[in-house]
Write a structure and sequence with these properties.
Helix content: 55-70%
Oligomer: single chain
Number of domains: 1
GO molecular function: ATP binding; corrinoid adenosyltransferase activity
Organism: Cisticola juncidis
InterPro entries: CblAdoTrfase-like, CblAdoTrfase-like_sf, PduO-typ
Pfam family, one: Cob_adeno_trans
Subunit structure: Homotrimer.
């Protein structure tokens, strides 16, 4: 047994296993880092980071939806687990551990409906704006759309759960509505698209 008086060693951050340009899926399969699975995982990770930034800006303004954003980030970890478990090489134990249900999709829909009811009607194209919280949420929405574009081919190929794509699709709608809500609560003006004069 280890010496109880000795300080515990933290695991090293670097493993060097990806130095040759390959990485492992949850099923243990080695694939090139440019594989569509890792593209989707990277976009999902970037999305979580963007939402984290939006959450920090929103927290500074005292928005009550920050807890929802944290929950979304946790769900994106589950999205990543599902994506990292390609169904073509997954055993039943893998599938059971990383399955993704429709429940989070339905929760997003409830949140969207709740915020939408409080917003003024949309009468023009809105540009990402409305203060730092709102603009960061719009940026998160754009990253979410890219993550969705990376995930859809995996779902169509039967490698990922269709609910993952549904979740990302609904999440971008949620982030759009939330950006508008943040601007409204902060009293910030949303910039709208104005067609340039010819």
């Amino acid at each position: 047994s280890p010496d109880r008086g000795a300080p515990e060693r933290a695991p090293k951050i670097y493993t060097k296993t990806g130095d040759s340009g390959f990485s492992s899926t949850f099923t243990g399969e080695r694939r090139p880092k440019g594989d569509p699975i890792f593209e989707a995982l990277g976009a999902t990770d970037e999305l979580s980071s963007a939402i984290g930034l939006a959450g920090e800006f929103s927290s500074e303004k005292g928005h009550t939806f920050v807890d929802q954003l944290h929950k979304v980030q946790c769900m994106l970890q589950d999205v990543g687990s599902n994506l990292a478990t390609p169904l073509s090489s997954a055993r039943e134990a893998h599938r059971k551990r990383t399955s993704f249900s429709e429940k989070p999709v339905l929760e997003l829909e409830q949140w969207i409906d709740s915020y939408s009811e409080q917003l003024p009607p949309l009468r023009a194209f809105i540009l990402p704006s409305g203060g730092r919280s709102s603009a960061a949420l719009h940026f998160s929405r754009a990253v979410c759309r890219r993550a969705e574009r990376c995930v859809v081919p995996l779902v169509q190929a039967g490698e990922a759960d269709p609910n993952v794509a549904k979740y990302l699709n609904r999440l971008s709608d949620y982030l759009f509505v939330l950006a508008r809500y943040a601007a409204m609560k902060e009293g910030k003006e949303e910039k709208i698209y104005i067609k340039p004069e010819p």
